């Protein structure tokens, strides 16, 4: 199973956006994870389509747009139009999840569903065959730098079995509190895409940290 690293850039130096993204590319990252927060679904506020458009202009890496927002249906097209390659919405934000996923798929980009730590896997039983990515939050979303919730290892393992039993090509992703101490365990539990934030963005040498992570994931 090919493992991929998707650095979250929530805490990078945005005054030197191009330089910071180049470090991420040079380290060997596979994707870039964009945390879009609206101050409603989660308490924090991050950035919007204009910043994503700037990011798209300076990197060729695939951009996964993680919409931690109320009413994601109002924002999907905006982020597709500025270069989002994968649009991930939270199960907890929509009463019409199937319709939203279909709208993302119809836009010609990949679709994903994110689940908060307390949300059971069973809620996506009837839509699992329509998505490309299942993202499991391993912290409660809203802020970087939180501690990994150990019980989420069990949830990752259960999700891995569920996807394997379906014999589909959905990528299993884990996001939150992942660092050099626990990333091997997260990977062994079955996550294919690993989101890492402050261990990269707060590092004096992000390229070295990314290469270390990639070696662990091999």
List keywords for this structure.
34% helix, 218 residues, alpha/beta, 19% strand
Task: Kindly describe this structure.
With 218 residues, the chain is of the alpha/beta class. It has 8 helices and 8 strands; from the N terminus they run E-H-E-H-E-H-E-H-E-E-H-E-H-E-H-H. Strands 1-8-7-6-5-4-3-2 form an 8-stranded parallel beta sheet.
Briefly say what this structure is.
The protein is α/β, with parallel strands linked by helices. The protein has 8 helices and 8 strands.
Regarding quaternary structure, what we see is single chain
- Supply Rg: 16 Å
- What spatial order of strands do you see in the largest sheet? 1-8-7-6-5-4-3-2
What is the H/E order? EHEHEHEHEEHEHEHH
Helix content: 25-40%
Number of strands: 8
* Averaged pLDDT: 95
Query: Terminal Cα separation, in Å?
Result: 9 Å
**Number of contiguous helices:** 8
Sheet with the most strands?
Answer: 8 strands, parallel
- Basic shape: globular
Classify the secondary structure makeup into a structural class. alpha/beta
Detail the poorly predicted runs.
none
Percent of residues in beta strands: 15-25%
What is the element layout, followed by pairings?
Blueprint: E1 4-7, H1 17-27, E2 32-37, H2 49-58, E3 63-68, H3 76-81, E4 86-90, H4 97-106, E5 110-115, E6 133-137, H5 152-166, E7 171-175, H6 183-189, E8 193-196, H7 198-201, H8 206-217
Parallel strand pairs: 1-8, 2-3, 3-4, 4-5, 5-6, 6-7, 7-8
Helix pairs in contact: 1-8
């Amino acid at each position: 199973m090919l493992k991929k690293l998707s650095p979250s850039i929530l805490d990078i130096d945005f005054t030197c956006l191009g330089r910071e993204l180049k470090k991420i590319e040079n380290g060997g990252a596979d994707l870039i994870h964009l945390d879009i927060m609206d101050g409603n679904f989660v308490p924090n506020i991050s950035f919007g389509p204009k910043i994503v458009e700037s990011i798209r202009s300076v990197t060729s890496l695939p951009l996964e747009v993680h919409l931690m927002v109320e009413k994601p249906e109002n924002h999907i097209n905006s982020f597709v139009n500025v270069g989002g390659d994968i649009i991930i919405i939270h199960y907890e934000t929509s009463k019409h999840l199937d319709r939203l996923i279909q709208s993302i798929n119809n836009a010609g980009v990949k679709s994903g569903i994110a689940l908060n730590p307390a949300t059971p896997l069973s809620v996506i039983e009837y839509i699992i065959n329509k998505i490309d990515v299942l993202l499991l939050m391993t912290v409660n979303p809203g802020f970087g730098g939180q501690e990994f919730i150990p019980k989420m290892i069990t949830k990752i393992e259960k999700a891995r079995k569920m996807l394997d039993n379906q014999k589909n090509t959905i990528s299993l992703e884990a996001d939150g509190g992942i660092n050099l101490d626990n990333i091997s365990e997260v990977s062994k539990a079955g996550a294919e895409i690993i989101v890492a934030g402050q261990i990269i963005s707060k590092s004096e040498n992000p390229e070295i940290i990314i290469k270390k992570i990639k070696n662990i994931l091999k």
